[in-house]
Write a structure and sequence with these properties.
231 residues; alpha+beta; Creatine Amidinohydrolase; 4 helices
Length: 231
Amino acid sequence: MSTVDLTDLERVGASFAADTMLTVRDKTRAAIHAIAGRCHPGMVEEDAVEMAKDILKAAGMRRGWHDVYVRFGSNTTKTFGAPSDPGIVLGADDIFLIDIGPVWEQWEGDGGDTFVTGTDADMARCARDAKALFHEVRAKWRDDKLTGEALYQFADRRASELGWKLNLDLSGHRISDFPHAAVYEGPLAEVPFTPSPLLWVLEIHIRHPEKAYGAFFEDMLLDDTYFSDEV
């Protein structure tokens, strides 16, 4: 990366606007919760994916800049882009994650979250810890102005301390007016400067060290104002 003009990695297009990106974020997070509300025990994962696509289309998604992921049970350990094992049914005491990347008009949304059914305490802790770790890492960005590289070094260490394995292959990226990949499509974990707000998403994907489940949380790098109900 030393041969790259680092300032260019935060370049935006002519249609980029902060207010619009925040509106897109709100639409994306609303869609995540709408999808989660329609997932239920006994549902097959493939049907959940089609349901999610219908919800996103009805909400006005022009296209997805990445596939729609609804992962049930053991498929929550899969990394981004990996195909799910087919035919997984959501159980009564289970865990599932949602990861969507809708393009609303010409602006990119991206977000993810994890949900549980039933009363499995370890799965519930996994889902909580993914979100809590997201906010811990975000706080290091906010307070200590860490680089992208340092943020994920911290995240890896904290995940281990909490008893989880961090998936470093799923480590945040640029987001912008579509397509961000025209500027930079590499991972946030390789960025040697402090990322700016509104331009990057932070992703946390943790897995149980022995059992076949994990959890995911993803949102934009923003200050506490935008997470007033969570921190």
